[in-house]
Amino acid sequence: MRTAIIGAGALGLYYGALLQRGGEEVHFLLRRDYDAIMSDGLRVFSIDGDFHLQRVNGHRETDNIGTVDLVVVGLKTFDNNKVYSLIAPLIGPETAVLTLQNGLGNEEYLARSIPAEQILGGVAFLCANRGVPGIVHHLGQGRVRIGAFRPEATDRCRDVAKLFSAAGLNCESVDDLLKTRWEKLVWNIPFNGLCALTGLDVTALLSDPHIRDEISALMTEVATAANAQKISSPIETARFIEQMLTVTESMSHYRPSMMIDRMEGRPLELESIYVEPLRRAQAAGVATPRIELLHALLALGE
Amino acid sequence: MRTAIIGAGALGLYYGALLQRGGEEVHFLLRRDYDAIMSDGLRVFSIDGDFHLQRVNGHRETDNIGTVDLVVVGLKTFDNNKVYSLIAPLIGPETAVLTLQNGLGNEEYLARSIPAEQILGGVAFLCANRGVPGIVHHLGQGRVRIGAFRPEATDRCRDVAKLFSAAGLNCESVDDLLKTRWEKLVWNIPFNGLCALTGLDVTALLSDPHIRDEISALMTEVATAANAQKISSPIETARFIEQMLTVTESMSHYRPSMMIDRMEGRPLELESIYVEPLRRAQAAGVATPRIELLHALLALGE
Of A136, A155, A175, which residue sits at a domain end? Predict the structure, then answer.
């Protein structure tokens, strides 16, 4: 499968590297890392074992890549207004487009321009950060769950999941993409926001008993909002939160992407991680006072 | 009336200066401002007209002041553990002790050591900041409301209110001190905390529509908690909030005391402004999610 990775942040570089190592033809759209990768290749420092891809198909634009079988979108969601112009040259009638972007509304954004049966979405449980150009650090986890945006894309989704698994990615195809996205938000809404706001990593936040209680309370608001949506089965709130906190305790001093975005002066992904979930919670009549206050404080810095 | 001012921040200096200008014998316990005031007096730059007190009774400790008729406590509440040892030398059986400190629990603190019939409490609606040593800036308002901690102190309270009025202070004696304290918290809880947390003044916060909504929502939580206490009549929430927002709009770029405490590296008055009100809200079964999150974020920086 010819695959294009659009949005070569930590996530795009890491999964693209795994696919190429697994024997797939992978094309990367690169900006910051172009020069480094074209001259020295792409290095992955990973808890699962380091590796180095000497030759990488890097591109400064997508015009010359041609049609591909799979587009993986890893762009920051504040760049969603650019996504279609970037991927249009890559898309034929059989191309699957998989967005691994954060939050809600990304598949809907693609669906403005691309037939729904070609759209897949996914959620990555991945602790990874970019290092200096040409280097990506894989610090923990790596599991990805993908699903069809609409039922018509179900077969395509299974094919992509098989491809990913064959390349050594820990990938699972799910029936309920919406629920999977909300489950991810149970983590993202408290940790991305509180880390970005305070400048403290996940370990520092969890070590403070008041903040730990607030993280649980924020997670409860997200899970309650999720369970008021049309999802296949409810999130078991208490057990799921306990599990999220346990997983996070193992992420020693992890800095979520939004914290790094703020530290490096980039915009924050507020629309997809806060505004759209708040809109859907409100439409379902679920109270979300803590999420609203957290969002307002984050938006103030933008 | 011999009066001692304990805690010569902006509030203590301003009201003490008004009393002395009104002809009362006032003694100030001074720390930072001692040298400046003893050599050059106390200057008040006020929207009601500037004035200068050439000679001021300043003291570095309270031992030599002797018994007074009235002690005004303006200490930061995080210093409450020092309050009794500071005021003990001033107190005779007829001395009234008036705490104008922020938040809840200050009268109760005094009542551990002083008979309840000598304890008064009050709330100052005052925009004032200290300038360089020897100078206090009165930026707006100035009204003070005082009340008896217990009914036995009611007459004493009326006497003090008369004294204050005679000296030109805008002072009112109230029947329900607890309600008055909660009304002040409707302002203090959102503005003190959000200004301290964000480093933005009240005007900057109100100009952001999301934060303005959060301020209203925080005020609603406080008023709801207040109305669940044993107060004489409920706060009319919507009208009161509207009024608070209007008043705050007139406080051009005002920096509340907690914001200045954080900027200058002092502890924050979290116990009296957040912890005790949260405790009483919880005891009354009132949900306070936004206040809890705001408190946790403030406590994280302590």
Answer: A175
**Considering only CB atoms, which chain A residues are within 8 Å of B200?**
300
Q: Which DSSP category does A175 fall into?
A: S
Confirm or reject contact between B210 and chain A (CB < 8 A).
Answer: yes
Q: Residue A117 contacts by C-beta under 8 Å, 6 or more apart in sequence?
A: A150, A152, A153, A156
Note whether B37 and B22 are same-domain residues.
Answer: yes
Q: CA distances (Å), B3 to each of A125, A209, B31, B129, B152, in order?
A: 65, 43, 18, 22, 21
Model pTM score: 0.93
pLDDT digit string, tens, across residues A154-202: 999 999 999 999 999 999 999 999 999 999 999 999 999 999 999 999 9
Q: Domains in chain B: how many in total?
A: 2
Alpha helices in B23-79 (DSSP H): 34-40
CB-based contact A198 B297, cutoff 8 Å:
yes
Put simply, the answer to whether A293 touches B292 (Cβ < 8 Å) is: no
Q: Find the domain containing B235 and state its range.
A: 178-300
Does the pLDDT of residue B225 top 90, yes or no? yes
User: CB atoms < 10 A from the CB of A268, how many?
Assistant: 24
- B300·A214 Cβ contact <8 A: no
Nearest to B210 among A197, A213, A299 (CB): A299
CB contact under 8 A, A211 and B292: no
The CATH number of the domain holding residue A258 is 1.10.1040.10
On whether both B90 and B127 belong to a single domain, the answer is yes
pLDDT score recorded for residue B1: 87
Last residue of a domain, one of A131, A153, A175: A175
Same domain, A96 and A68: yes
For residue range A76-124, what is the model confidence (pLDDT) as tens digits?
999 999 999 999 999 999 999 999 999 999 999 999 999 999 999 999 9
Any chain B CB within 8 A of the CB of A230? no
Note the ipTM here: 0.90
pLDDT tens, residue by residue, B288-301: 999 999 999 999 98
Tell whether B145 and B290 lie within a shared domain: no
Q: Which residues of A touch B208 (CB under 8 A)?
A: 296, 299-300
